[in-house]
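Weekly modeling sync, notes
Attendees: S.R. (lead), two postdocs, one rotation student

Agenda item 3: backlog of single-chain predictions. S.R. asked that every request posted to the team notebook include the full sequence so nobody has to chase files. The rotation student volunteered to paste the first one in as an example of the format we agreed on. Action items at the bottom.

Example entry:
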Amino acid sequence: MVNVFPKLSETFIAWELAELQRRGVEVRILSLRQPTEQLRQEIVTEASLGERVVYDPREFRAALREFQPELLHAHFATEPAAAARELAAELQVPFTFTAHGYDIYRKPPADFAHRAGAASAVITVSEANARYIAKTFGVPAAHIHVIPCGVDGERFSPRGERLEPPHVVCVARLKPVKNLGLLLEACAALQARGVEFRCVLVGEGPCRDDLEAMRARLGLGQVLELTGATKQDGVLAWWRGATIAALTSTSEGMPVCLMEAAACGVPAVATAVGGIPELIEDGVTGFLTAPGDAGRFAAALERLLRDPDLVARLGAAARRRAEERFSLTRQVDGLLALWAELAGVGARR
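Predicted structure, as returned to the notebook:
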């Protein structure tokens, strides 16, 4: 159960579904809304996921009665979790939901605790999220399972030459929570110091006009590019050409974009919010800075841009960490183990 499928900024859902199918799990996708984006990620077509989507909520019950699921799962604690809870009760099967980020910190449902209590388990993507859910909503820690999203390390892997001059790449929705003005301020500081680089913002969103105006005001027209929405093959090409991954958010769950960068051997400079410190080991796979501090962010970028050997060392460590902790295989292993246990419990009731 999801809000919209497919969605460019939620590729992790499509990859999860594709991997489940690859392992022989039958899936059906219930999407509360029709997609409005013209672009679709390649994996949606490759795995024929579009053929498994039901879009009309009036048809959900009939589709599920025919499919006879052993368990329902929702992505996000918002409307999808509420809908899954209702349908699971009618079908008398367990349901779980994954809480990611905005649905925990910025727009949590008022009855989060009740939804969590009705679920057979709550999944979230970082230890930071789990602590916040337990403290803020009173959900017992034992009821929360931390299973980070994962990336396909075969597809997301280092290949080819890095772009010259060195490229700082940020893959993000152009939204206020990403605080991308801070990245532009850091770029202006680097340009003033004579550092040779290019910066690329890959993504689309409501802040585009403000960012374009800021680019002009700071005189960054020759060093900063806004690509707009990009399919995953395009994102992969940017990561393989990047020297540094950057993320300036004020709030995050566990950003998949930084996992993709790490899998491609790209060290990151990012703000130490949410689950990011679990993803980036400061000084080992990248650098962490306090949110809102453009000066320190620029200094961390400059340190890497002026030291190719450091970039190579941190990038190799980032790749190893991604393979060990944030693989798609590891993610789906964790989900299937939990769901098998819960479906067995449901069958015994």
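Discussion: group reviewed the output briefly. The two ends are 24 Å apart (CA to CA).
Action items: rotation student to repeat for the remaining queue; S.R. to check formatting next week.
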